[in-house]
Amino acid sequence: MGPLPGKFALLSSLEILNMTSNLLYGTIPHEFSSVTGLQTLILGENMFSGQLPDWLGSFPVLTVLSLRNNSFNGSLPSSFSMLENLRVLALSHNHFQGELPDLSGLTNLQELDLEDNAFGPRFPQLGNKLVLLVLGKNMFRSGFPPELSSFYQLQWTC
Q1: Which DSSP category does 137 fall into?
Q2: Does the global pTM surpass 0.85?
Q3: How far apart are the C-alpha atoms of 49 and 62, rounded to whole Å?
Q4: 109-144 per-position pLDDT tens digit
Q5: Is 43 exposed, middle or buried (0-12, 13-18, 19+ CB in 10 A)?
């Protein structure tokens, strides 16, 4: 219980950090911006809050980002559109709001879970490799884009 220790960032070759269900709170320490080899960051089921830092979208090899079940708020940084290696983006059950950045450049994204936030009102722009799309309990008001029908592997829930 407590804030996420910034000292983890001293592990310069850190590739995977899973701190699920540890009663952690506060924000993600800025020290983590220097861990450029991070491939998996899972901070779900904690009590993190505040806005996501823009630098979180600058990890060149990040493939999994899961921040489920926290109290993050604000909008998603536009830098998230640069996470071209991302395969899983799980942000469900937080307090995010507003428009999503263009995610169509995330050509490896297979799972997008945004459930129970306040994203919207426009439907997000997405890459075509999605397999799982969870959007329920948001504020999307526009119709589904016609290109969704070409996502042949897609399973989704609203």
Answers
A1: S
A2: yes
A3: 21
A4: 999 999 999 999 999 899 889 999 999 999 998 878
A5: buried
